[in-house]
């Protein structure tokens, strides 16, 4: 065997290792910088403290955790039914020529940089909520108030952003349901609609769940668009129209402002984010495996 | 206080022979001024590139300390805790902080006490200060902003607590925006908003209110009648390169003509 | 037992795009009989079978003309309700295709779709259908287990049971035993014998012996045409057409 | 054997049944959701383009931005975007392609390889702000690379690695084993086989991965701002800071510097993404065709 | 013509994991002869063929013991250079597998790998190899066209030409005509006749007639063992082992 083969193999291996090593390096860095404050300040104080005011020495990340969760949940509540519906439409209902137009359009939606969505949200959605939504809400609750920078705005924009992920992954899952299932159901006298809801969607559920989890990851991780439209208010929100700040937004905004303690607190926020995403990924692969095995 | 202790560069390095790159980072209030100064400087020395970017005053301090920028910019005085880094400070200008509201807001004048109460959340409706019956949208800067630091100190939003520790009492119901420009834009687009920005950044999209009856103008700030002012600082650490020296020298002398246009010169 | 015609097919032509897969088919399918469709691969047996419950509607570019009367009513009439048609004309596919649900859910699926909600009624139907498909004893203890865990022969009988559960009049079977071992095949053939008391059955098969064993009448397809149709005994003992004879004796196909 | 006893059968009433209410609502919802999605897409793109295109002219592309982007064009920003994309791709491609080759062609199924795969999977899930955080502290400060195209490029390279590795792996896997056997049986070494037969057959998949990577590099904001900085000047060397179009758009939008320039920048960005999508589709199509003739 | 032994196999055993696919194989393959390997599916023919140029090394979990001597040198010796071995022992696969390159590039691939750079030399080799594989006249005007555009038979001959281009001593062929029409098959069989003047050929075939037509010696495999090996004429006319006879006469397999 020619001599350089071994050398090449080692080079290739090194490249593969570099990719992995960077993960460990990133993890190491974040934990090294962030863990001390978690210890010093107390994990529960950090996780459940309601005041985030680093200059005053308060590092309670709870408002941001709730902020991240609330915009993400909101995005899922809007985006998941829409996304799955579009996926069903593409895979089962739409005639070919519509699929040909609609699918690339959805893919385009995925490619648009998130700041463009943020910009759209800032210039259209935020005023819209203040001017048109608020009066409606005020009819029910006269005390309601919003500047427009809100969970609602963030959730809507994030919903649009995760829509393509959900549509694409779900559509693939639905398309890969064996046609025999569909035929079996149709031949029993089930309508197309019944076949979709009772046979096809259940059979595709692991893929659909995966799409939701992926979308969720994207929503939790989004940063700049969210800074532009949620108002960045580190306060536990009381309603959908309240402003919130998110984990990612806080890191991005305050990263430079680094008294050493403050910077560590931001890394600790990074740890939370990191764990959150890990948890999501593990649940995702977990459910996929469990459902796939059945 | 003014602590311009940098040795003035005496001998002029021959014109046009300077070349290289200067990176300035930090305060978003200083940023527009730096941009203009840099533009003129680069015209003079075409071989020099001056890169200006924002981030906020603390980024300015940090980047000077870590030497990731040649010059850090800050829109507040250096804190006690930052003194130990051994930074060299140059006061390049003074600036007032304008308290701005939406142009449609009919409130014209606020006292320092009212401003303090609005920003600490004690006053939450414009009618309490002579405006419409409308909830106030407070817009503040992020933690670590120089403008915020100076503002809360002067307006007493920041207080000493029992242990003598300074505590920033800015209401938690404030929207937070990460730059002077973002605050301005938020106030411009939100009818009930109030915020504070560098006086040099004020334009007709927002309306500065009088503070204690004094209009927010450079003259008043210079005269000391307008109370909310702070210095603009350039920070360096260790030995400065030729071009950095030349640039700072330029800013402190010829540059002051440019400073005068929107800010208060230090000459 | 009556010798009524259950399904009457007249001048049926079917095109896949430009390709004519069925050519002027005329055939009467008798009630409570088993009719076998035989013929070489690609001759149109499956296509024909699928016209009877309009499963071809699912395929793009299919064009059909002619008439199919089920109990005298045209199933290709625009007034015809597909759902009711398919409920009345059940189908068992070549490859067993249980849903990825439990055994119970598989059988209960059809009745539920058709509006039956009470647990007790469903239980009854499930048992009756599984007994009808001679599968009850084998699966009665694992009704809540996934149907995909059954053996191939059991899955095929499950699909028959699933079909029985909606109480059709006609059952169409497309090579229902081609994927099965001889023992499972035998079980299903015996089952057919039982079922024909209550149902009209049309079965596609590649297996000449099977056609001979189970069917009452046999139709021989070739290139989209029906060459010959007759009582099974007659067609196997004295085929009228030379091509039928050649096929039956294994000369081609 | 128990057989159900079923008497009767009268005529079947095969009359057309109308959709029931539930189904009507369901279909209504489907069409509503699809229409809404389409409208959202059209309104976002339409809003940006309608307001933006009229402010785009040659000057916008070839002039440098002035007074923080309030006037002038976006030349240095386009340059910065391209520069940064190229650097990140140049760093990520060799590592990504080599890693993918290792994983598909060399790796045995052992713990170590599982660990590598696990790592890459995690890398794909990490939110971009974490990359930014890491890049800022590690590349910018610790390695003293300052805000520079190099810092940004390294950070982005890490971000696009998983995309690239996966795309390459997938396309390498589709190369028929018979090609490899054919080459090996002629006395070629494994590496020769990979370079001369496997990679050429999977090149379009790799290209698609690259283009997707570029798309991600162009779209990223937070991590780029923290690592490549946001200086407006025209970057010359790899050690210069740069501002990409997304960062520029973010700053323009957030600081309300100039509506016109904001829309114009956003329009250019959208058109760019359109082009990239188009390019990726073209390659995928070509690729599909070439594999079709191969089979 | 000499009757030298080109490849000598002694006590060869091969395991896929736990499964023993080759059991104590002993066989001599003669120079400039065609040796046919026959036997029912799964008996180990391909496996054995692939031991001769160590293509089995590509498969995980393969364990081999015993000796294979090529020109007296053990090819499983750690000193043996795989590259040289495979260059000397060429292989033509069951399914034609040209690279997705031009006709020319396909043939020139091997020589280039082995260090030949000059265009003129390469041109020469390409022509010679294509002529050797009786393909030159059919493709000489389309050398720069993709090889995948050739017909199945042409592709198979292209693969043979590709193999000839590296000038091996031995050519292994695994059912080289199973994917081809009768006319292409005939062309390749004629070609084998030509090639054996210069090469030692081992061919796996399912086709008894083919083995009879082309080979000089035939080995009959069953369940991983060589049951019988002899001159082709003898083995077909008077097989010694009953199982060989059964197989040849079509009694099983
Ligand atoms: N969806 C389709 N589109 C186009 N042509 C089709 C389609 N389905 C079947 N055909 C063609 O119609 C003819 C009849 O097909 P059909 O499936 O009915 O044959 P068959 O008799 O069932 O054969 P087999 O015994 O192999 O199942 C064949 O030539 C087939 O290629
Ligand atoms: N990669 C492998 N791993 C495990 N077992 C294998 C592998 N390849 C082949 N086998 C087994 O080894 C035995 C011999 O296989 P081989 O391919 O040599 O048979 P063959 O004689 O060539 O059959 P055919 O005529 O069908 O090609 C078979 O039982 C097969 O299942
Ligand atoms: Mg068929
Ligand atoms: Mg074989
Ligand atoms: O951006 P600042 O000037 O407020 O630090």
TrEMBL record, chain A:
Transmembrane intervals: 12-31, 61-94, 106-129, 149-167, 208-229, 265-284
Residues in coiled coil: none
Xref: Pfam families: BPD_transp_1 (PF00528)
Keywords, alphabetical: Cell membrane, Membrane, Phosphate transport, Transmembrane, Transmembrane helix, Transport
The ABC transmembrane type-1 domain, residue ranges: 65-284
InterPro entries per record: MetI-like, Phosphate_PstC, Phosphate_Transport_Permease
Topology term for the membrane: Multi-pass membrane protein
Annotated family: Belongs to the binding-protein-dependent transport system permease family. CysTW subfamily.
Function: Part of the binding-protein-dependent transport system for phosphate; probably responsible for the translocation of the substrate across the membrane.
Protein name from the UniProt record: Phosphate transport system permease protein
Biological classification of the source: Bacteria, Bacillati, Bacillota, Clostridia, Eubacteriales
From TrEMBL, chains C, E:
Keyword ATP-binding: yes
ABC transporter domain ranges (all copies): 7-248
Alphabetized InterPro entries for the sequence: AAA+_ATPase, ABC_transporter-like_ATP-bd, ABC_transporter-like_CS, PstB-like
Name recorded for this polypeptide: Phosphate ABC transporter ATP-binding protein PstB
GO MF, one example: ATP binding
Organism: Crassaminicella indica
Gene name per UniProt: pstB
Pfam families reported for this sequence: ABC_tran (PF00005)
Keywords: ATP-binding, Nucleotide-binding, Transport
PANTHER family referenced in this protein's UniProt entry, alphabetically: ABC TRANSPORTER I FAMILY MEMBER 17 (PTHR43423:SF1)
SMART domains in alphabetical order: AAA
UniProtKB/TrEMBL annotation, chain D:
Topology versus the membrane: Multi-pass membrane protein
Main localization, broad class: membrane
Signal peptide feature range: none
Annotated transmembrane regions: 25-50, 74-103, 115-141, 147-165, 197-218, 263-284
Annotated ranges, domain ABC transmembrane type-1: 78-280
Compartments where found: Cell membrane
PROSITE patterns: ABC_TM1
InterPro entries xref list: MetI-like, Phosphate_PstA, Phosphate_PstC
Record keywords, A-Z: Cell membrane, Membrane, Transmembrane, Transmembrane helix, Transport
Recorded family membership: Belongs to the binding-protein-dependent transport system permease family. CysTW subfamily.
Protein name, as recorded: Phosphate ABC transporter permease PstA
Species for this entry: Crassaminicella indica
Gene encoding the protein: pstA
């Amino acid at each position: 065997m020619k001599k350089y083969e071994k050398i090449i193999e080692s080079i290739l291996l090194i490249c593969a290792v570099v990719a992995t090593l960077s993960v460990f390096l990133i993890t190491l860095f974040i934990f090294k910088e962030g863990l001390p404050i978690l210890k010093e300040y107390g994990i529960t104080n950090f996780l459940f403290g309601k005041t985030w005011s680093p200059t005053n020495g308060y590092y309670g990340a709870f408002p941001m955790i709730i902020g991240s969760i609330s915009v993400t949940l909101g995005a899922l509540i809007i985006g998941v039914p829409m996304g799955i519906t579009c996926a069903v439409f593409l895979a089962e209902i739409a005639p070919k020529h519509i699929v040909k137009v609609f699918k690339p359009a959805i893919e385009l939606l995925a490619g648009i940089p998130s700041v463009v969505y943020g910009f759209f949200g800032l210039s259209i959605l935020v005023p819209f909520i203040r001017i048109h939504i608020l009066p409606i809400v005020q009819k029910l609750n006269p005390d309601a108030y919003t500047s427009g920078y809100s969970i609602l705005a963030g959730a809507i924009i994030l919903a649009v952003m995760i829509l393509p992920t959900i549509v694409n992954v779900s559509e693939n899952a639905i398309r890969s349901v064996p046609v025999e299932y569909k035929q079996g159901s149709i031949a029993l006298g089930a309508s197309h609609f019944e076949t979709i809801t009772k046979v096809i969607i259940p059979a595709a559920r692991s893929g659909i769940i995966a799409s939701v989890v992926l979308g969720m990851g994207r929503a939790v991780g989004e940063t700049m668009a969210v800074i532009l439209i949620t108002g960045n208010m580190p306060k536990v929100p009381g309603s959908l129209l309240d402003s919130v700040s998110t984990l990612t937004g806080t890191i991005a905004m305050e990263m430079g402002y680094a008294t050493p303690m403050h910077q560590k607190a931001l890394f600790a926020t990074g740890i939370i984010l990191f764990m959150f995403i890990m948890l999501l990924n593990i649940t995702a692969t977990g459910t996929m495996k469990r459902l796939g095995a059945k | 206080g003014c602590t311009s202790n940098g040795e003035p560069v005496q001998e002029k390095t021959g014109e046009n022979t300077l070349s290289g790159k200067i990176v300035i980072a930090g305060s978003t209030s200083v940023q527009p001024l730096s941009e203009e100064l840099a533009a003129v400087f680069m015209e003079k020395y075409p071989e020099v590139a001056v890169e200006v970017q924002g981030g906020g005053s603390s980024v300015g301090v940090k980047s000077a300390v870590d030497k990731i920028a040649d010059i850090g910019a800050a829109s507040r005085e250096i804190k006690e805790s930052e003194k130990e880094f051994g930074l060299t400070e140059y006061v390049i200008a003074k600036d007032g902080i304008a308290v701005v509201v939406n142009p449609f807001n009919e409130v014209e004048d606020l006292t320092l006490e009212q401003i303090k109460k609005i920003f600490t959340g004690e006053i939450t409706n414009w009618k309490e200060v002579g405006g419409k019956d409308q909830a106030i949208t407070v817009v503040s800067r992020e933690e670590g902003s120089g403008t915020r630091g100076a503002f809360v100190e002067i307006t007493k939003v920041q207080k000493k607590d029992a242990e003598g520790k300074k505590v920033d009492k800015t209401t938690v119901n404030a929207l937070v925006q990460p730059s002077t420009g973002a605050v301005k834009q938020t106030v411009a687009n939100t009818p009930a908003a109030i915020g504070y920005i560098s006086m040099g950044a004020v334009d007709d999209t927002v309306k500065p209110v009088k503070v204690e009856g004094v209009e927010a103008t450079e003259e008043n700030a210079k005269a000391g009648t307008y109370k909310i002012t702070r210095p603009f600082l350039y920070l360096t650490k260790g030995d400065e390169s030729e071009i950095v020296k030349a640039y700072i020298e330029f800013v402190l002398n010829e540059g002051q003509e440019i400073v005068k246009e929107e800010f208060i010169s230090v000459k | 037992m009556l010798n009524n015609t259950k399904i009457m097919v007249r001048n049926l032509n079917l095109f896949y795009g430009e390709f004519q897969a069925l050519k002027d088919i005329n055939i009467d399918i008798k009630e409570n009989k088993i009719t076998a469709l035989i013929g070489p691969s690609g001759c149109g047996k499956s296509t024909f079978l699928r016209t009877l419950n309009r499963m071809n509607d699912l395929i793009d570019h299919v064009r059909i003309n002619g008439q199919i009367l089920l109990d005298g009513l045209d199933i290709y009439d625009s007034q015809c309700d597909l759902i009711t048609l398919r409920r009345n004309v059940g189908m068992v596919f070549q490859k067993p295709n249980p849903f990825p649900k439990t055994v119970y859910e598989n059988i209960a699926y059809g009745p539920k779709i058709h509006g039956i909600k009470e647990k007790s009624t469903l239980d009854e139907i499930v048992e009756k259908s599984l007994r009808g498909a001679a599968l009850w004893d084998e699966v009665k203890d694992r009704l809540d287990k996934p149907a995909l865990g059954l053996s191939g022969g059991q899955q095929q009988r499950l699909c028959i049971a699933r079909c029985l559960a909606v109480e059709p009049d006609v059952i169409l079977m497309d090579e229902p035993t081609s994927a099965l071992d001889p023992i499972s095949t035998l079980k299903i053939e015996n089952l057919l014998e039982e079922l024909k008391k209550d149902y009209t059955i049309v079965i596609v098969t590649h297996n000449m012996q099977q056609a001979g064993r189970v069917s009452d009448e046999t139709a021989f397809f070739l290139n989209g045409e029906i060459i010959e149709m007759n009582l099974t005994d007659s067609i196997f003992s004295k085929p009228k057409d030379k091509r039928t004879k050649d096929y039956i004796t294994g000369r081609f196909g | 054997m128990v057989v159900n006893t079923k008497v009767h059968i009268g005529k079947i009433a095969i009359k057309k049944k109308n959709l029931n209410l539930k189904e009507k609502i369901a279909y209504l919802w489907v069409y509503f959701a699809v229409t809404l999605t389409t409208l959202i897409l059209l309104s976002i793109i339409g809003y940006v383009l309608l307001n933006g295109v009229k402010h785009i002219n040659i000057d916008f592309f070839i002039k440098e931005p002035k007074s923080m982007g309030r006037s002038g064009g976006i030349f240095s920003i386009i340059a910065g975007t391209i520069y940064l994309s190229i650097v990140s791709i140049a760093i990520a491609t060799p590592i990504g392609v080599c890693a993918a080759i290792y994983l598909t062609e060399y790796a045995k199924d052992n713990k170590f390889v599982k660990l590598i795969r696990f790592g890459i999977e995690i890398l794909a899930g990490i939110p971009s702000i974490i990359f930014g955080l890491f890049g800022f502290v590690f590349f910018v400060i610790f390695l003293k690379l300052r805000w520079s195209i190099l810092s940004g490029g390294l950070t982005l390279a890490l971000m696009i690695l998983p995309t690239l590795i996966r795309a390459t792996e997938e396309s390498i896997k589709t190369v028929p084993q018979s090609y490899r056997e054919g080459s090996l049986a002629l006395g070629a070494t494994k590496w020769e086989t990979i370079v001369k037969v496997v990679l050429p057959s999977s090149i379009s998949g790799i290209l698609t991965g690259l283009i997707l990577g570029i798309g991600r590099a162009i779209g990223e904001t937070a991590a780029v701002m923290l690592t490549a900085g946001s200086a407006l000047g025209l970057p010359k060397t790899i050690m210069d800071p740069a501002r990409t179009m997304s960062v520029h758009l973010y700053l323009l939008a957030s600081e309300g510097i100039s509506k016109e320039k904001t829309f114009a920048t956003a329009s250019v960005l959208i058109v760019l993404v359109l082009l990239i999508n188009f390019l990726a589709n073209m390659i995928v199509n070509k690729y599909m065709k070439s594999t079709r003739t191969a089979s």
